[in-house]
Amino acid sequence: MQRRDPDSxxxxxxxxxxxxxxxxxxxxxxxxxxxxxxxxxxxxxxPAGLAAAMDAAxxxxxxxxxxxDLIGGDGLNYGSVPSKTLIRSARAYADMRVAHRxxxxxxxxxGVDFQAAMQRLLRxxxxxxxxxxxxxxxxxxxxLFFGHAEFRAPDRLELDGEPLCFDxxxxxxxxxxDIPDIPGLTDVGYFDNETIFGVGQLPARLLVIGGGPxxxxxxxxxxxxxxxxxxxxxxPLFLPHEERDAAQILSVAFARDGIEVRLNTxxxxxxxxNGEIHADxxxxxxxxxxxxxxxxxxxxxxxxxxxxGLDAAGxxxxxxxxxxxxxxxxxxxxxxxxxxxxxxEHRYVSVAAxxxxxxxxxxxxxxxxRLGELVIPWCTYTxxxxxxxxxYVRDALRRDIAVxxxxxxxxxxxxxxxxxxxxxxxxxxxxxGSDQILGATIVSRVAGELISQVTQAxxxxxxxxxxxxxxxxxxxxxxxxxxAARTWCNQHPASK
Length: 496
What we know:
By secondary structure, this protein is an alpha/beta fold. It has 15 helices and 23 strands. The strands form six sheets. Strands 1, 2, 3, 4, 5, 6 and 18 form a seven-stranded mixed beta sheet that branches. Strands 19-20-23-22-21 form a five-stranded antiparallel beta sheet, with helices on both faces. It has a four-stranded parallel beta sheet with strand order 10-9-8-14, with helices on one face.
């Protein structure tokens, strides 16, 4: 079995490497003896699979967990953990360069130690990997198998040529990079989210293809480390699904950081010339070129469901949606459920874990938990961050829901001014004729932290009037949420 190794190009402290390996895929691992039949088999030991296996085992179910690569999945190895760790290190350098904002003197020569940042990333991964190590899983009563599992019947898998029978199964195989078909891309070589966090040295010039969350985060991070970055996005704005004013603020932030932005542009071809990567770009009828030392593809991810024998189990699937499930996460095969990126439109670690537990509740314990009832927040961890929950105005209009919006700019928030982080806003969408919160968008350096208060209000059914009664410590950016609620209440005194 070919194993992905995100650390292969990075010099690692040997002790850290050993700890990572022992916690994620021990070199000398021997699979345990198989039970004749398992109450639950979980395929994939990422956030969804781990949550499902632990929940099921804690209720006394005999559980087998199958992983073909590294425990922790995308979240720990190729996604949230490494990216946000590196983002924090890059922000430290960015803060040093603008120390004058805070009445401090910036260092005259800010030398970037990229290897130190990469070492920190690996130490963080090693530390967090302890919580889901093979030892922890074994102590929880889970039979952990490394290998590639394929369905051979509606209630049977095959693992390394031997059967693995189950009463119920959960597919939690995650997602993989969705690589565009660009002539020359494979020939010149490229990084994606599964390889970029093992880059051996900082690229002097970096071409980032894609202006979604992944591309935007990587472009800003590497620019702050010192790479000359060109980001190419095929539509007119970054983060095309977000509020337009939020995406515009991000475009301004990129210009502030010195990122060369090419919007409404496609990469039409790539080639190597004298050791450099030459890229041909097209924007409508305008043809241009750029030169880079490395390319990162951040154009999204797709479900990882290949070579699983899903047809043998009677499970519908496609490469875009992944495994087809109903509102209870059940496939066409009543014995098999799915969770996380393998079946979800929203591919976030938090959603993966929630749906993993939901699949267990519905598959094993007669639960009737529904996907349609989830209130899902998300955040893009650029600077400023862009967080959202619930409906956008365009969504409400498509559903014929009348909506009113209240916006508080951060330059009107004392804490944001004190921190010199006053670029952004808090925007709440409310159903007309009531104080029901339909959605929110927050643009702030701490938007990911702030969005949870709005999410909690939506989950609990608390409206704008209840939100307006919340007392926030002063000074905090979260006080802007209360200010927005009070503003709305003053504008709508008759709404219930």
